[in-house]
Design a protein that fits this description.
This protein has eleven helices and eight strands. It has 232 residues and is of the alpha/beta class. The structure holds cytidine-5'-monophosphate.
Length: 232
């Protein structure tokens, strides 16, 4: 898979999601399904969106003991998702277990990426609540290196971290980057934002874009703008 725009379908119901996707008549955007929609609808939403011809990043951020994650990863692989994810904080045995479970009987598997530290965790919270005393940047890069060593395909990170992740883990290690806005003025609850064009310059492999597309008056035009600026 090459560079692509992943549309975060942060809707509460299947009906809203299908109504949104129905607007796209000429293209099939790569879709991210998160916990809210998946918990509301169950696996049927994945099967339906796959049947409509979209690729799917199922963003459920697994974090449990290795055996549970191994068997759960096998279920995800059976759902035919294209990308899934877990928390690197679950440790290397958990990540290795996930990679074992992910391989389908035919030898293929979805891509697996790791969340390093959530962007809602800053240095102070990490130190005071999680009792991790090292600098946040160092923790992110160490977790990325752990993910690579466990056989994962990449990480979720800020576009601003994409270069350092590639320097540490190699150019082929995927950086999937949210926090995308067309301008600084629209940043909403995202702390640090990057335009699609800047994310491309910084070396992101995939950008995850939610509200700039889903809340746009013309979602198809907004998606095309992201594709033009990021993919070219
Ligand atoms: O609407 P917006 O473009 O901010 O959506 C970004 C998407 O990426 C949301 O689904 C959000 O949960 C997700 N995400 C994020 N930051 C992370 C990890 C995931 O914004 N660090």
């Amino acid at each position: 898979m090459g560079k692509d725009v992943i549309v975060a379908c942060d809707f509460a119901t299947a009906e809203h999601t299908y109504a949104f996707l129905d607007k796209f008549t000429d293209e099939k955007p790569f879709v991210k399904i998160g916990m809210e929609l998946f918990f509301a609808t169950g696996p049927s939403i994945v099967r339906e969106i796959k049947a409509r011809g979209h690729k799917i990043f199922l963003d459920l951020k697994m974090h449990d003991i290795p055996n549970t994650v191994r068997s759960s990863a096998a279920v995800l692989a059976g759902l035919d998702v294209d990308i899934c994810n877990l928390h690197a904080a679950g440790g290397m045995d958990m990540m290795r277990g996930a990679m074992e479970g992910l391989v389908r009987p035919d030898g293929t598997r979805p891509l697996m990426i790791a969340v390093t530290q959530l962007t809602s965790i800053d240095q102070t919270r990490m130190q005071n609540e999680l009792l991790i005393a090292r600098p946040l940047d160092e923790v992110v890069l160490q977790y990325a290196a752990n993910a690579k060593a466990a056989g994962l395909d990449g990480v979720v990170c800020s576009p601003l971290e994409a270069g350092r992740v590639h320097d540490t883990c190699g150019a082929g290690f995927l950086t999937v980057t949210p926090g995308i806005r067309f301008s600084e003025a629209d940043r909403g609850d995202q702390q640090r934002v990057t335009t699609p064009a800047r994310a491309r310059e910084l070396g992101s492999d995939y950008i995850v874009v939610g509200r700039p597309i889903t809340k746009s008056g013309d979602p198809v035009a907004a998606y095309r703008r992201c594709m033009a600026d990021f993919v070219g």
